[in-house]
Write a structure and sequence with these properties.
The protein is built from four helices and two strands. By secondary structure, it is mostly helical. The chain folds into two domains: 50 residues; 44 residues, no CATH class. The N terminus is likely disordered.
Length: 105
């Protein structure tokens, strides 16, 4: 029986392979779509690995209590975080701020 031929472009894509591309894409100014096109990568496969890593980082979440703005008393903003998603998180509570600083700084 003859061994199957694997072309160099179809080399085994390991987690290390995708992790390296993820780091390079994040360091670039390219969107994931643009990066995949430039590097001839499968967009859906790349997304699979990213979602897999994000699922495994679930233990990094911090629970917070939310209050309706109609019920809350106006408190000074202690810290404002601009998130990668484009959202802004305003922290008014010293306990919440200390948890964020402890976990992420």
């Amino acid at each position: 029986m003859e061994a199957a031929h694997v072309s160099p472009s179809k080399a085994v894509e390991t987690e290390t392979f995708w992790k390296r591309h993820y780091e390079l894409q994040k360091a670039s100014d390219l969107s994931r779509v643009e990066y995949c096109k430039q590097h001839d990568l499968n967009y859906d496969r790349f997304g699979y690995w990213i979602s897999k890593w994000n699922r495994n980082q679930g233990n990094k979440l911090v629970s917070v209590k939310l209050r309706s703005t109609s019920e809350s008393v106006e408190q000074p903003i202690l810290c404002t975080l601009d998130l990668k998603s484009g959202n802004r998180l305003k922290i008014h509570d010293t306990k919440a701020l200390s948890i964020v600083l402890e976990k992420y700084c």
